[in-house]
Design goal:
Layout (H helix, E strand, L loop, with lengths): L2 H35 L2 E7 L14 E7 L17 E3 L14 E3 L8 E8 H5 L8 E8 L9 E14 L3 E3 L10 E10 L1 H13 L2 E6 L14 E2 L6
Antiparallel strand pairs: 1-2, 3-4, 5-9, 6-7, 6-10, 7-9, 7-11, 8-9
Length: about 230
């Protein structure tokens, strides 16, 4: 083997050694990254904006993989958790699904029935009434007598809200063509008698309003407090 051949062999050996060193360096970097990131787990991301109180379904989310150590304890890793659930707040596209983003869908109890009515958004809801809340349903009535007092009546006390719909624009009444009203459909769980009371108020009351009841309050108003007239206010 002459000197030129020896130099070629030496260069070849050096090239192999450099390649092995580079490969070893890559393995070290990959191992370091894996040690910092850890195993990846499945999570779910919102495909598109979801309005508050909307029933949730697996089709509204897409699967992603996230390093386990970067995933919060409330992250949802199984879409079976969405069964009979409602969005608690508005969910934005791209958000990672968390267990505190949804609540159980309220259910009817024995003897109850669902009833939905439209409530003026500005005077009856104000964005604070959510599924599971309790409200007093109040109707205001014009007197049937020309000289009689107008009256407000607590039609139903502690009515349980089971769903809050989307804001809906209503056509103005014939007597007031210049104004439009936004209303929200509210669904209640009511007894048969209370359903009749609410239907009566919706049909004949000038206005139907909701008064949010403080959590933990189950007592009904005193009989004398269910009816109010300005003339009788002392």
């Amino acid at each position: 083997m002459n000197s030129r051949q020896r130099r070629g062999v030496i260069l070849l050996i050096l090239s192999v050694l450099c390649a092995l060193a580079a490969f070893g360096g890559v393995l070290v970097v990959v191992g370091d990254v894996n040690s910092k990131v850890g195993n990846e787990v499945v999570a779910y991301r919102v495909k598109g904006d979801i309005a508050p109180y909307t029933p949730l379904a697996p089709g509204q989310f897409e699967q992603v993989t996230v390093p386990q150590r970067w995933l919060s304890e409330t992250a949802v890793t199984d879409l079976a958790a969405l069964k009979d659930k409602l969005a608690l707040t508005g969910l934005k596209k791209g958000s990672l699904l968390q267990s505190d983003m949804f609540v159980d869908k309220p259910k009817l109890q024995a003897g109850e029935q669902e009833m939905a009515i439209l409530i003026d958004a500005s005077t009856g809801v104000a964005g604070k009434i959510t599924p599971g809340a309790k409200v007093n349903i109040i109707g205001t009535f014009k007197s049937k007598k020309a000289d009689g007092p107008d009256q407000s009546v607590v039609m139903v006390a502690n009515a349980r809200v089971i769903n809050v719909g989307k804001l809906t624009p209503l056509d103005p009444k014939d007597s007031d063509k210049k104004t439009t009203t936004d209303a929200v459909p509210i669904t209640f769980a009511l007894s048969a008698k209370d359903s009749q009371r609410v239907a009566y108020a919706e049909s004949f009351a000038v206005h139907v309003r909701l008064a949010l009841v403080a959590p933990g309050t189950d007592s009904a108003p005193n009989p004398g407090d269910r009816f109010y007239t300005l003339e009788g206010d002392k």
